Amino acid sequence: MNTPSPADVFFSLLRWIGIPTLVLLPLQLAFSLMDWLNFIKKTRERIGNAADQTLRHWKHLRQAPPFRLIAHVLAQGALLACTYSAFRLAHGMSIDNIQGRSIADGRSFTWHELWTNCTTYDGAAPLAIKALQFTAGCLIVINSAYALDLTALKSVSRKVCAVLLALALGGGAIIFLVGLMVLCLATVMHHPDYNVEMVSLYALWVLFLWGGAGALRLLLSTCEAVYRRPPQAPGNSGSQLRLGHL
After folding, report:
1. What is the DSSP string of 72-141?
2. Is 243 left (phi over 0), alpha (psi -120 to 50) or beta?
3. Spatial CA neighbour of 201 closest among 86, 46, 96
């Protein structure tokens, strides 16, 4: 239930006393007009403040060293590329060849088969497209949080990124160790179920996981540098106080 405004209480009291509606109607219209004017004034102030803040950020971005902006853009591109490539690689590993074996078996792994699986079935990997779109949405959220200086959203973004960094680094380390074992099985022990080319598959996983982790870490550091708020002029606070007194 909405709380009645002072004007509603005032007019209800006048009606209860017995003042005719025709007398109250002009007063109600006047109060409504005043409310609308006040709302328009507050809206203009909010839009003006948002525009000033955006202009200050834009000036700060223009004054930032070019390499920071370039590193910021490259970090996001690398993160998108690693995410999409990892999901494409996972999809390529799930495709069976003529003998009914997938790349994950490792017995007949070849670079030609990996390249064919990852490039031929473009429309059969919707999960990779969704992962790319989800990552792009997360990048928009992270950039917005730092650009608008949303403390709560920045804190949540940093915590989520810390978890993702730990998972990517830990997963890459495990795959790296497994790849070393596969290399030993294929070269030293000459195991029939493994070959040397299969080690490159593990190397790709390590590259995408650790590369994505490095890009994410670089992204967070460049966000702090690129979107750092410019120092406020000393006269701004005084002018705001004078406007407040006016």
Report:
1. HHHHHHHHHHHHHHHHHHHHHHT-B-TTS-BGGG-TT--HHHHHHHHHH-GGG-HHHHHHHHHHHHHHHH
2. alpha
3. 86
Amino acid letter, residue 177: L
CA gap 43, 2 in Å, rounded: 22
Query: How does pLDDT run along the chain (246 residues), one tens digit per residue?
Result: 556 666 565 556 555 555 555 555 666 677 777 777 888 888 888 888 888 877 776 666 665 667 778 888 999 999 999 999 899 888 877 777 666 666 666 656 677 777 777 776 555 678 888 999 999 999 999 998 888 888 898 899 999 999 999 999 999 999 999 989 988 888 888 777 777 878 888 888 999 999 999 999 999 888 887 877 655 544 444 444 333 443
Q: Which residues of 99-125 are buried (b: 16+ CB within 10 A; e: fewer)?
A: eeebbebbeebeeebbeebbeeeeeeb
Rounded CA gap, 22 and 233, in Å? Answer: 54
Q: Which amino acid is at 118?
A: C
Reference 138, options 87, 60, 208, 76; nearest CA is 76
3-state secondary structure of 246: coil
Rg of the chain in Å (alpha carbons): 30
CA angle, residues 192, 194, 199, in degrees to nearest 5: 160
Report the alpha-carbon distance of residue 170 to residue 206 in Å, rounded.
Answer: 10
Of the chain, the end-to-end C-alpha distance in Å amounts to 36
Contacts of 183 (CB under 8 A, 6+ apart): 196, 199
